[in-house]
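Give me structure tokens for this 223-residue protein.
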Amino acid sequence: MVSPASGFLTASALSALPDSTVVLLRDIALTRDPDHLTAAVPAVVRVDDRQVLLSATRPAAGGPGPDDPLATVSLRQRILAEAAVRRLTRTGPLVLTLPTGWRPDAAAAGQFFAGLDVPWLRLATLADVAERRGRAVAPERVRYSERQAALELPPATLAEVAGLVDDGGRLDSLLPGTDTVADQVARAALPAASYAACRNARRQSSAVAGMRGWVAGQLGRSS
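Here you go.
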């Protein structure tokens, strides 16, 4: 499965995936009017004959307030309400990705999931949902905004990260009595190619360049 953290993929990225790959996107990635989402947005579609599951955006935002919308009770009730609408209107299953950073304590998490144990609701896996045949959607329906494009890491940064990982492997092979250098360098390099690095791409690129310079110096001393 491919599940981008942002919930968005370009149409070209979708087409580059193997046909058998199941993709999980946010429902607003396949609507031209994200401010007027309805429960009628399907949970399963096919884009160029590729299965795409759509995670519902609205219930993941939590309850209406005035209390914390992501409190366990508020979030649970919002999910139940959305699931009830889909059941009554027979618009298919509800696919949900819990909000990023939502970390209730063990007791609250237990109450949250216990509250979803109601007679008319059946929890299922994504694999269960993916077995449904979704309706066809044209690739041009896939939304990818300028904001998403602006958050992409530049190819130069990814090349620098790959180069640093390779340099770490070379340094490891030259240093006697150790086999951890390559792993340490890779662990230091890879965060600069992560989703978390997108908002500070320039800083991450500078940090990777600095690390490559240090490793290059060590290679010079070891050769």
